[in-house]
Design a protein that fits this description.
The protein is mainly alpha-helical. It has four helices and no strands.
């Protein structure tokens, strides 16, 4: 069997051939109380009207509600 580094290289090569690429994300750990407190403080400081406007805009431009998404994909 190939070495672990070689197996990873082969897996990445197969994924690349399929049009995929590896993406690593580093995100805050929501299991930590300090992180949850920080997020809660940031949420408490949000402007409700501004957030509502932003969410309304996101919903208005969202393609999830378009019944025929294939027709939209062809125009891109």
């Amino acid at each position: 069997m190939a070495a672990p580094a070689e197996r990873m290289r082969m897996m990445r090569k197969r994924r690349m051939a399929r049009g995929l690429r590896e993406l690593r994300l580093v995100v805050p750990d929501s299991r930590m109380q300090a992180v949850r407190r920080r997020v809660a403080a940031q949420v408490a400081g949000l402007n409700r009207n501004g957030e509502t406007d932003a969410l309304d805009w996101i919903e208005a431009v969202s393609e999830f509600d378009v019944p025929d998404t294939q027709a939209n994909d062809e125009t891109r």
